[in-house]
Amino acid sequence: MTVNRNAAVKALPPAFLGLSLVTVLLRCYVRIRVTKAFGWDDGLMIIALLFYAMFCACMITGGVYGTGIHFDRLTADHRVKAMMFWWLCEIAYCLSSILCKCSICIFLARITVKRPHLAFLYLIMTLTVVMGLVLMFGLLFQCRPVSYFWTRVAFDPTIHGTCVITDVVEALTYAYSAVAAACDLAVGIVPFFIIWGLNMPFRRKVAAVAICSIGCIACSAVIIRFPFVRTFADLDFLYKTYEIAIWSNVEVGLGIFAGSLATLHPLLRRIRSSWAQGRLKRLTSRDTSEQVPPVPDFISVSDYPSPSVSVFRPGNVMNITTTVQRDGLGIGEGSQLSTRGSCDTDMRANDILVQQTFHIDTGRPSRDWDPWPSLSEAGGEEV
User: Fold this and answer.
1) In the CATH scheme, what architecture does the domain 5-283 have?
2) 3-class SS of residue 360
3) How many CB atoms lie within 10 A of CB 84?
4) CB 62, CB 89: distance < 8 Å
């Protein structure tokens, strides 16, 4: 059997504390900057995180002094300090667990619209607070004086004090664990009744229920911890009870993480929207570059002689249409450009065609031609 178990005691808290810290910071960003709806549930979760940080710090320090190690392998001073940090862990656990569960209940209360659901959530919150405080004060004052809880393991005959029998501590722990597990499961079921009656697509209902129910996953750690509660009565306390310390830490860490994760949907929606817009912009840019070829370095010039003669000028006149066509710029497909006095010309899609018509007199004017005809000869109006 492994003699030293405190590696897990020192390694696990930083992982869950970091995970909880990130999600709570994101939660604060969403509530302050995105939705601008910072509420009591957010404040309680922040306080729960602070007590959880205290829990992790005391647990790591207790591991340094001997949590998870046999009593007979520790000095008297290390035993005393490890037991003192264990006692501090109990207080920090109770406070962080109570505040975390209350925060989740208030979060659900903010989205419920029916009084029965609201009353049920307040009932869960009341049971959690009452049982949590009973457990905390039971652990806080289980010995008289309070310091006797950790000084007794020095096995110094000059140190005197009394403690309640461990059966009382076990009973309180079992009672709180049962209530906590039941409340966590209830918190996971309530969103189904809150959201399922709303007028929204089925897939969105399923997603919303899953997001709001994620806060109940902490009950898994509570259930796993049940078999280890009996180790409170073991004389080799620090070595035998390390599973209780680990699963209690996991319970609170998962609760804070899951309870904060349920509030991040607006941030995920914004990220998804930004990603979709960026992808659409890239696709549009790529399609445009594929459809529009680069502008060539040459300009093609073609002459289109027109057989027609202007009615406003004498005979022997030739119309010359000069066409300057530049590829690569957009004219709609099937467009036709035509000029009076010249043949209609079909142009390719994505071309621009510029035409200019020059009227060139190729012969001498007739003697009978008068460049300034009278009004009567011009049809009654001056041209």
Assistant:
1) Up-down Bundle (1.20)
2) strand
3) 19
4) yes
* Burial class for 329, CB neighbours closer than 10 Å (0-12, 13-18, 19+): exposed
Burial environment of residue 313 by CB neighbours within 10 A (0 to 12, 13 to 18, 19 or more): middle
| Residue range 294-353, pLDDT digits in tens | 545 444 444 444 444 444 444 455 555 555 444 443 433 443 444 444 444 444 444 445
- What DSSP element (H or E) covers 302? strand 300-306
| 102-155: pLDDT as tens digits | 999 999 898 888 899 899 999 999 999 999 999 999 999 999 999 999 999 999
Domain borders along the chain are: 5-283
Supply 360's token pair. 């060139």
CB 262 within 8 A of CB 211: yes
Three-class secondary structure of residue 327 per DSSP: strand
Find all residues with CB under 8 Å of 47, minimum gap 6, and list them. 99
Determine contact, residues 121/112, Cβ cutoff 8 Å. Answer: yes
Give the pTM.
0.71
- Side-chain-side CA neighbours of 177 within 13 Å: the count stands at 21
